[in-house]
DNA sequence: TAGTGGTCTAGACCACACC
DNA sequence: GTGTGGTCTAGACCACTAG
């Protein structure tokens, strides 16, 4: 654990436990740096993290303040935590996967473009229903270049593609680009997610890329509207 | 303009203009710092920004690489740019506002909690249809404590509440917390957004807070599903 | 082992807000 | 003016990767 993380954790606890008055600035950076026996840059970095979390706000020339509305609800960054795949995001829950479709295709122009490949490079097309604690949770449609992610089979699909990529193939996932939108549900959604005909879907379009910068996955995750919310925090700089 | 911003801009241009081979690491931080006549920390900070934008990725012990899929589409951070309100986000477009409802209420428990006030503190309740280039764009339902945001009237509502807050009241908006979800449209959505009965809605729940850390706005923005997408980029650290 | 990015330091000066 | 956060420096050491 780095020093700035240790300091950030301590400060987060203090703030949540009301050690600092909510309507006053917290102590200035120089004093805090002295208290934590760190340089001011390191102290600042710790506070930067809490600012990014939406817990603190800075007023240049004035001080660093607690965001009142942040203390009440414990908001979670779904967006930024979900890089690791569902199996790792919901570690404590029982997750099952039902494979609905699994084939090899030549990609459409759109899929090829998002994967940075040409249309003659074959891709896996996987449709899976992810079931969390016995409840249908999300329907995932995934395209992956076969040459990048070899060895996909039923065992992998029933477990976790992400674990296969990171543990078996020893590849490293670097990040994702996402688009979030609302859609009508189609009959496949209704059949597998158990939603009604007029229930909407929260769709997350997703490009995942490896630590080489190469995209390895282009997917559409279709969520029941009543079971999935994306949260985000934005602090002005 | 700060030095790290200048450097980031230059590097962004170089990357987008293919100055650096896409499958190779870009020059190392020490060399780049020397080239830009900066310290390594400042160089790193410039690159940090490009990493946050989803343009670059770092491999510790190896180098800094270009994310291939990032160069193709010019993805925009809707989430992080929208703090300033619709009028400022879509500056070049013609925006009209139709006031559908405007009253003063005692807040429900939920609204009071999100605004950090008690249920005896009156709030404005405003429902507005925002029309962009003549097309219905979003239906906004907004709660604001009357004592924090005084002087709301029809003129303000037809222009921009955000401009009233920042220019007239001279308050400073610090940031927002958001939740994004899909909903069914109700008859009010259908009537004003011109969507069909089975069209879904992309709803953004939103708490805005001032640079004092005090929440001033709790709102629900209901978007036509075919005209609004939220994008996000996530890079693992 | 050499080279890369990650962290941390101690100090400097600047920009801004309040008195 | 005084005190705050914002930026920047020059250098150090650590952690990781590749050959």
UniProtKB/TrEMBL annotation, chains A, B:
Classification via SMART domains: HTH_GNTR (SM00345), UTRA (SM00866)
InterPro entries attached to this UniProt entry: Bact_HTH_transcr_reg, Chorismate_lyase_/UTRA_dom_sf, Tscrpt_reg_HTH_GntR, UTRA, WH-like_DNA-bd_sf, WH_DNA-bd_sf
GO molecular function annotations of the record: DNA binding
Keywords, in A-Z order: DNA-binding, Repressor, Transcription, Transcription regulation
Coiled-coil stretches noted in the UniProt entry, renumbered to this chain: none
CDD domains linked: WHTH_GntR
Domain HTH gntR-type positions: 1-69
UniProt superkingdom: Bacteria
Name of this chain's protein: HTH gntR-type domain-containing protein
Species per Swiss-Prot/TrEMBL record: Bacillus subtilis subsp. subtilis
Lineage: Bacteria, Bacillati, Bacillota, Bacilli, Bacillales
